[in-house]
Amino acid sequence: MSFLQSELRQLSLPRYPMNRADAVRMLLTHEYGVIPPVSCKAEARILSEDRQFCAGKATLRTVELTLALPGGSFSFPMYHTVPKGREQYPLFVLANFTAAVPGRYFPVEEICDRGYGVLSVGYNDISKDADDGFSEGLGKLLRQEAANAGVPPEQLPGKIAIWAWTLSRMLDWALTQPGISAEHTAVIGHSRLGKTALVAGMLDQRFACVISNASGCSGAAITRGKTGEHVCHITEKFPFWFCEAYRQYAHNEAAMPFEQDWLLSTIAPRLLCVSSAEDDLWAGPAHEFLGCVAATPVWEALGLPGLVTPDRYPLPGEALQEGSIGYHIRRGCHYLSREDWNRFMDFLDRKGWQ
């Protein structure tokens, strides 16, 4: 038995069902919450356009997207950055912490210089990252639709599922724009929004690549045996991110009938990229990496390489990019850095996106 397989065996992980629909159902009903099919009509309106953005190398459009649901309508701004001089370009759909373009985690000029476009949103413009009882906005509308469809109260969607669902509505609009194809779209997020990107990729198979940066507990990291944050911590501080049913596993993680490698496995056979930081012990970099190792057999069962890695934990600064699962760990703390962005684009470039 290899070293990494021995590491996984000690964790006694639940076996992935090898049936994607069963895995998705389990994760939604026990962790993130269920959003049933919803009748939704979208209308976009360009609010502004800067053709001289990034010293004239890109165009930045501010677009208001209005979603009309049976219970009412909701509008929010999104920001479309288009690199100039390209008939077609790969696109990142970015769940961001602020609306700022560029921003702390968003080196937009560097991204455009490499030929990538970005459709970004400030997540608080979708639904506030607060325990507001889902009393307003899109969170209220989607929870109402779920309840009307018969979703049990303990399985109503939390904020992560609501943010993730909205990223798909952004993709709906993006795919109507010239130069964008689903084959070259990636959904990306950092930390809680890295969890959101993974859930978006699980829910919407049109995303050709799913990128999770430092998503940690309830994201890419295997829960059993990890350091740092656990279900008891995250559901105490952020219960509204998840469905109510998830709280039953606080201090009771061994009873979970699923694990986070299941979330990663639902991305197969598409591309997946996961990243960690050496000092980000709360997120648990070793268990983010092990999540990729544990998910690899699902890609292999489909005739594709998953994570291609030496039989050891990776060293800080190392990037593993040969397989369908990319992984890197950098030095430093919990952050979405230029180094991370460039590693992601290196991975996609290797897969023929440029």
Concise summary:
The chain is an alpha/beta fold. It has helices at 3-9, 20-32, 53-56, 108-113, 137-148, 159-174, 192-203, 231-237, 260-265, 285-301, 338-350, and strands at residues 41-52, 58-69, 72-83, 91-96, 117-122, 185-190, 209-213, 271-277, 319-320, 325-330.
Which range does the strand content fall in?
A: 15-25%
Q: Please work out how many helical segments DSSP would assign.
A: 11
Helix content range: 25-40%
**Which sheet architecture does the biggest sheet show?**
10 strands, mixed
The ordered string of helix (H) and strand (E) elements is: HHEHEEEHEHHEHEHHEHEEH
Stretches with pLDDT under 50, minimum 5 residues: none
Please tell me how large the radius of gyration is: 19 Å
Structural class: alpha/beta
Q: Quick one: how many beta strands? A: 10
Distance between the termini: 39 Å
Features:
354 residues; alpha/beta; 11 helices; 32% helix; 21% strand; globular
